[in-house]
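Onboarding guide, step 5: your first structure request.
Type a short instruction followed by the sequence, for example:

Predict the 3D structure of this protein.
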Amino acid sequence: MSFEEYKQGISALNCEDNSDWINKVSCWVEKEPGYNIYIFQVIVEDERDLEKYYETITAAIATEFQINLEKTIEKWNIYLIFECKKRISEELKGKVEQDKYSTRKMVWDSLKENELGDKNYIKNRLLYLYIDTDERNTVEEIPLLEKIKSIDLDLFQAIKNADKDISQLVAIYLGGNLNEQKD
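The system replies with structure tokens like these:
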């Protein structure tokens, strides 16, 4: 497996129509046995920049790059990652990431300067799963119900009274009591 810059990805998108944003885009390829995974990385300045460009970039990838791929597995393994130092609203993040057209989209915000545009950062965050077992072993194990009780007492009460009717449970969780009345 090899993760490297893929200049042909940018070349495919490089036309006059895309001149507003082409300098914000990098393309990477992860070479797997028998197929490739393509990753387009876009560095945006802020939320406005993301909203302005994400649909256009997605469409360009679909019509100028993806359409030329021959292997189905490659057509369905294209990632479009937007990176930003600033925070992006959950609403816009959701809109972009839930857009199923052409590519799998991700929005990574609040990045540090050394993470933004970094080859190793994108490779590790997207392609590799790392579990720190030392940290996991030092965490004090607390029963799930105790954790829920410490975070959300109403939810704990609803779970604790699981033998009740669903409407009563909802009333308890929403701040009522067993008679479905507000406390």
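Each response can be followed by summary notes, for example: The longest strand covers residues 35-43.
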